[in-house]
Amino acid sequence: MSRAPTAVPLRGRALNPASAASAAREKFINASFRHLAGEYAGALERQSEVHAAHAAAATRVTGLSNELRALNDALEDVKGALEDRGSSMTDTSPLIKIKAALSALRAEAKTMDLHIGVVGHAVMQVGRLKGGRVKQSSRGSRHPSPPLAP
Does pTM top 0.85 for this prediction? Predict the structure, then answer.
């Protein structure tokens, strides 16, 4: 063990020039690539900015997509309502049914007037045969008056 304390400093002196050369080489490499390290740091910073801008743009695109979907749904609802209105406005079958019903009512009213006239005439004839007079009421219809006593 007596050799160990003297051997370590000898070995340390032998390694000193190698260590100094290694340190000088490290300084040279650091100096040579320092600009690349700065460029790398700048590129990392730009990358983080681009990622942040991408995330903001993706959020905005999602919001705009949701808004577009809502607008498309509203547009489809409006189109459906307009189509329903348009088809019901051009459908004339209710009007045709109303016209037919009115024609039937007019024909029935004419028939009723004819029947009323026939009945009125018959009543008047019966009144004449019995010798009574027919008097006209204020409503315009004829009613036979009771026969007068002789």
Answer: no
CA atoms within 13 A on the CB side of 23: 6
Is residue 135 helix, strand or coil? strand
CA distance 97 to 137: 39
- Say how far residue 139 (Cα) sits from the centre of its chain: 63
Is the CA virtual torsion 23, 25, 27, 33 positive or negative? negative
Using an 8 Å Cβ cutoff, are 135 and 123 in contact?
A: no
Rounded Cα–Cα distance for residues 122 and 110 (Å): 18
Q: Report residue 142: phi and psi, to 5°.
A: -100, 135
- Residues 120/142, Cβ–Cβ less than 8 Å: yes
pLDDT of residue 77 exceeding 80: yes
